[in-house]
Amino acid sequence: MEMYRSHVLVCAGAGCISSDCKSVQSALREHIEKTGLENEVKVVETGCMGPCDLGPVIMIFPDGVFYRKLKPEDAVEIVNEHLIKGKVVTRLLHRPVGSEERVADFGQLEFFKRQTRIALRNTGIINPESVEEYIARDGYRALGKVLSQMTPQQVIDTVKESGLRGRGGAGFPTGMKWEFTARANGDTKYVVCNADEGDPGAFMDRSILEGDPHSVLEAMAICGYAIRASRGYIYVRAEYPLAVDRLETAINKAREYGLLGENIFGTGFNFDIETRVGAGAFVCGEETALLASIEGQRGEPRPKPPFPAQEGLWGKPTVINNVETWANIPPIILNGAGWFASIGTEKSKGTKVFALAGKVNNTGLVEVPMGTTLREIIFDIGGGIPGGKKFKAVQTGGPSGGCIPEEYLDTPVDYDSLTKLGTIMGSGGMIIVDEDTCMVDLAKFFLEFVQEESCGKCAPCRIGTKRMLEILQRITSGDGRQGDIELLEELSRGIKSSALCGLGQTAPNPVLSTLRYFRHEYEAHINDKKCPAGACQALLTYYINPETCRGCGLCSKECPAGAITGEKKKPHVIDPAKCIKCGSCKQKCKFGSIITV
Amino acid sequence: MSQVSLTIDGIEVQAAPGTSVLEAAKKAGIKIPTLCYLEEINEIGACRICLVEVQGARTLQASCVTPVAPGMVVRTNTPAVRHARKLNLELIMSNHPQECLTCPRSTNCELQQLASELGITEIRFSGANPSYEPDLSSASLVRDPRKCILCRRCVSVCEKVQQVSAIAPQERGFNTIVAPAFLEPLGDTACVNCGQCALVCPTAAIHEKDQTAEVWAALSDPRKHVVVQTAPAVRVSIGEMFGLEPGSVVTGQMVAALRKLGFDKVFDTDFTADLTIMEEGSELLQRIQNGGRLPLITSCSPGWIKFIEHFYPRLLPHLSTCKSPQQMFGALAKTYYAEKSGIDPADIFVVSIMPCTAKKFEAGRQGMNGSGYQDVDVVLTTRELGRMLKEAGIDFNSLTEEEYDHPLGISTGAGVIFGSTGGVMEAALRTAYELVTGRTLPTLDFKEVRGLAGIKEASVDLNGTVLNVAVANGLANAREMMDRVKNGKRYHFIEIMCCPGGCIGGGGQPIPTNKEIRTKRAAGIYSADESMPLRKSHENPAVQALYKEFLGEPLGHKSHELLHTRYTARGKY
Amino acid sequence: MKSLEELDKLRDRLQQEMKIRDKDYDVAITVSMGTCGIAAGAREIVKALLEELKQQGLNNVALTQTSCVGLCQHEPLLEVTRGSEKTTYVNVDQEMAKEIVRKHLVEGTIVKDWTAPKK
Predict the structure, then answer these.
(1) What is the ipTM of this complex?
(2) Is pTM beyond 0.90 here?
(3) Contact A497 B80 (CB under 8 A)
(4) Same domain, yes or no, for B405 and B545?
């Protein structure tokens, strides 16, 4: 590495890549060279910085200035003004919602200020392809520490005392998992990283893999030492090609430095890691299905017990944790269990990364201490609801979770509080919906997802979710029947209590929780054939406001059903018997005369 | 290991560690309904019918896959359990065509039975059903995925018991279908047609190709002289179709029933089983004397033949060139018998009653027309015969026993035991011993090769020559046997039967067929053998006459033309 | 990697170059880079400063720029900030810049002569 007076960090997380950060980066590099700054200014490609809706984003150090929504054309100005003259380019700064001023220093933005980054400590700050940058930020010191100063049992005790729980779904205490595996009979044991992140909207694991792959490798090696395993597998989905690349690069670099492989730190400890690329089945995030998939079998869950800690990969005791869980391990080792346990709530320690999505101003990734309230996450960090709309609910935990309505916004978020509200922490997806969202439709969306992703092994999930979906489909298309709600509840209870795996057992949650908080919306669909949010097309009635209709005839030309008639320059009318509720007339009307109720 | 103590429905139960709650309950006399469960073969917890409450568990547990644990408290009959079982069954039924009245498995369908037991009186769910077309590509089996409830018993049998893996779950979720890879037609795959899948299918999602209509047509055609042959194992199982105990020997009633159906002659495959011993025994002795390829491996089981053609083509020279008894019979019916009875072979229609679905495929193999005509016209399974008899209104159980017709109905006990694993070997040993040593066997029973064990080995001293023999049944065991041969283990003679237990456990046998039933049928076979006046193939007078009048000698020119065949190496998929 | 000590040594070296991202520095040198400053040669001053900082192995110094501070006749001009103490050097050339690093930053002595406009 070399010394520079300035570092330009260009976010190359997937969000920024999709908004073409690559062109911005090459324009910056090009102009830096043109102006002869290449020995003074270093351009670093990093993983995801978090505020994905603002991409492409960059940060310039030492000042820590944050620029957002860049275009390649902006490079010249950034170089000429900021890098040469030290003048902040104000027009490229972010202006938070509701604020008059643009903010230069990223540390002053609420989005960053309120975060506590442990799992994401390096993501967006370092070059993920450089093991040196990872080492510079204390990388592999935790591994060195356990190998030279701790016994395997001390490592397990530290993880236990930290209170860390699995960040992928059920929240099982990580240290206990390690202990069970360490105590299981057998000489061969495995360490597996679950990187088959599949919840709609959740991408923290991808960000960590893409932004800080070494933190996962280091953690797995630490676990390998603790449970006496010498081999690890990272099961990563094929839809994450960049993560796969970065992991491969990281594994090779770590091997070069002797941080993986044989006789690590000269202690005689051997550990190596391989990646396995999954074919994109959601259910492979379920641990037994994941293990089957690594073994080359059809990716399907099997009954537990035996748990992977007893019989895992190829029948051997196996620790399986997800990416975010792993990323917490090195700081716990370095800073101690007490430090970690001092963050968070009584039963949920540390921080949690959430992926904010949906109707919220700042979409992206945020890491906050457990116990932060939903309001803080959604309104202070997330910047609230766009377009002056009203908050309606937040769906947490993906398709296995449920929704939380406004009255519970002040709930401190942890595993237990979410469970009490009928939802789960899951992998940390948060989808915010506003008043325009129909909750029946939302439940239908998630059920469509689980239905599509059911592996097909057990009957209640395979057929039950299909039947639930069919009932929701008829409710949202105006054909709901009396008794449908009760049938949904019966199916939900049945599937919950009898499906084979965790995914099946939680598949009805979106329906149960919307029924719990928004039952009246279901009733309105069934009894009054109305969608209170005005979202279900089939339940809308279209009519033309005769006061404002100018009789231009555009709508009647557009109508594919021939349902609109009227004389030129006189108000037109829609024949409700012919109207197929496609909405094309409404889009076409220049006078806003077509109204739906 | 010490026993685990648990409580099921308030009863203290002791069970070995590793036992499932289902098994433990069974021992305690508590019946838990099951659907996908197939003991030792398919224990996957997929159907969620055998659910029970386990104290402390968050959800209901599938008892077939839940191991017993010390102090476990299980309840098998609570409102939650009953409700969940019924709901899951109702869901399965909502995805199953409501065609019971016209279904070939009606009244012998586990789904139907369970629906009645659990008291399902209404299906409240209507909705989409996968719309896969039936697969009619196989000569032996029909797959009807619409009726499949995805219990996967067929998959497990094919994968574990037979190690063929011709079918597996394809696609995912609601569209899951059990089918060959890439949804290829079954007839184009390495499926060996053994029909074990059909035997374990709880519904009619896989069943034999029904050819009863062709037989009805022949029987009512005045120009046709319709003869029937009955395989050894059918006589101990056909009674089950009429409520008799498995293993009941009903040879005489069966012969009477076949006559009532209108067959012109009722013959016995046992006759050609005896003939097989003459040919195959001679082939064995010849190979031993001339330094031919050893071990010699039997060739009467068509599922096994297709298996070795697909998976061990290099070992094909080990196979006996003898056709199976069914095919020898067909060839002789349309030559020797035609000549003897003065009937134009073109008018003779040969029907086989077989415990086997693979025989349907075998009848259509290349070279199975030594007579100048297709040697065997139609093969019916035991199940199809049962259906014809019912359709004809024949009161099977009250029939008076009748005798087979001459000459192709004359046989010995050695022919009968072809129906059970080890039988061909025992029959061959009875003859080989006497032919080689010139002495009469002191006892006819070669007990080492009897029984349902997957692999049996024995050494027999024939006048100083020690014959090392082995017997395998079920293709997983056949595979093990072939690997032993490949690895240089030395045998002289190996009998292989495709199906577990041999033909008594054949894929065309009555449903259910399980370990207990196979044991009873095997016992029937050996008791039938014991009751025969002649029990050695070489003593069969009709076989002796056949050589004298027609064939000349074993392995002679005519034999080669009519009774021997060739094999084809096939790909693995 | 043979030991934790070896890793720590490597880390210490690598940290020098990464420190810049921590916004955690003791001293800032701010070079005035208005049009006037650049015309007077401020670009070269920045380069010289960076070179000397590397030479001295100083990683706790932020080297930044600012726009014209209104003392155009004194350009090139730079300001050294340490805590609340601010020192402005004027009419700096490359050699002076290096000397400022050595004297002011390393030894801690302000080069008083250069802090006022030349007579």
Answers:
(1) 0.94
(2) yes
(3) yes
(4) yes
